[in-house]
Amino acid sequence: MSLMVYLDGKLVPQEQAKVSVWDHGLLYGDGVFEGIRAYNGRIFRLDQHLERLWNSARGIMLEIPLSRDEMVEAIRNTLRANELHDAYIRLLVTRGPGDLGLDPRKCSRPSVVIIADRIELYPEQLYREGLEVIVCSTRRNIPEALDPGIKSLNYLNSILGKIETARAGVAEGILLNSEGFVAECTGDNIFLVKDGSLLTPPTSAGILHGVTRAAVMQLARQEALEVREELFTVFTVYAADECFLTGTAAEIAPVVRVDGRPIGNGRPGPVTARLRKAFRELTNSEGTPIGESVSGARAAT
Ligand code: PMP
Q1: Which listed residue, 105, 158, 177, 200, has the most CB atoms within 10 A of its CB?
Q2: Structural domains in the chain plus CATH codes
C-alpha cells in the first residue's frame, strides 16, 4: 500500500515524494532529522524530539520553515492520512536546493519531509536472548569537528561503524570517543548495570542526547536506582553485571556479549527486565494524541 508522505506542506503519494538533486541534504548531508515513535495512537516524547530537532537546526544555522505547533500538526496529519496508530516517524529538514558549492546561503528554501510508516519491530528473540555487539575500530566524531549532539543528515560516522558490525555478523557496535572512552553505539545509547547502579556516558563524551536515554534515566530514578553519568572504558563494559542499549527503534535492548565475551552471566539481567517493563508502561500511558482520522483523508488524494 502506498504511503502518503508530507513534503513541504502537502501530503503526496510516496512515489511522488521527491526532492531535487540540487538539495544540499543530498549533495552534502546538510540537514537535520529525527526518528520518533507513536504507540497506540500517541506520539512518544514529541516535545523532546522537536526540542532536539530545533537544537540540531540551530547547530547548523538552519531555519526550520514551520513553527513548533505547525510541525506537530504536520506530523499528526501525516499519521492520520496513513491511518497509523503504531508508527515510526522520520522527520527531515534539508538545507534545500542550492548550487554545487557548499555555501548554505545559496539555498533559499529548506525542505521538510515527514515519513510515517509501520514500525518494523526487532525480533522478540533479540529481547529474550539478548544481543551481541562489538567495539568498533571507527571512533565517534569528535565534538570539536562535528558534535554528535547534532542529529545531522550526515550519518557516515555511524555507517562506518555499521559496516564493521555487518562484517562481524552482530547487531550493534560500540563507538569509543577519540580519547578511548565509551561514547555510544551506531544508532543507540549505552547503559551498564554494576552493583545495582546504572552507568551511562555523559553527553560530554560526545554522544547523541537520546530521548530514550533520558526516559530510562528518569524511570530508573523513579525505581530508586542510582544513575551515574560517568566516563568509562571498554574494561568497565566487560566487567559489568548487565549492559543494555536504548533507542527509539530498539527501546531497551539487552546486550549479552561484547567482543565475544559474555556480560554478567551471558543472559539478559533483572535490572534491564525491570526497566523494560517500566518503559512499556510509560509508552502506554503518555504521549501526544494523534487524534481522529478525518474520514476520506486518504481517498481524497
Ligand atoms: N545514538 C545515535 C547515534 C542514534 O542515531 C540514536 C537514534 N536516534 C540514538 C543514540 C538513540 O536516540 P533516541 O533514544 O533519541 O532514539
Answers
A1: 200
A2: 4-119 (3.30.470.10), 124-283 (3.20.10.10)
Backbone angles phi, psi at 114, to 5 degrees: -130, 120
- Residue nearest ligand 1's atom 5 by CA: 187
Average model confidence (pLDDT) across the chain: 95
Encode pLDDT of 148-184 as tens digits: 999 999 999 999 999 999 999 999 999 999 999 999 9
The yes-or-no verdict on residue 301 having pLDDT over 60 is: no
Res 91: pLDDT: 98
Q: Which pLDDT does position 293 carry in this prediction?
A: 59
Among residues 111, 122, 112, which one has the least CA distance to residue 249? 122
Instruction: Tell which atom from ligand 1 comes closest to the C-alpha of 34.
Output: 8
- Among the listed residues 8, 78, 113, the one whose alpha carbon sits nearest the alpha carbon of residue 293: 78
Question: DSSP 3-state assignment of 126?
Answer: helix
- Which residue among 189, 211, 245 is best mutated to probe the pocket of ligand 1, counting the most ligand atoms within 8 A of its Cβ? 189
DSSP assignments along 49-111, one per residue: HHHHHHHHHHHTT---SS-HHHHHHHHHHHHHHTT-SSEEEEEEEE--B--SSS-GGG----E
Residues flanking ligand 1, CB < 6 Å: 35, 158, 184, 187-189, 208, 210-213, 246-248
Q: What's the predicted TM-score (pTM) here? A: 0.96
DSSP 170: -
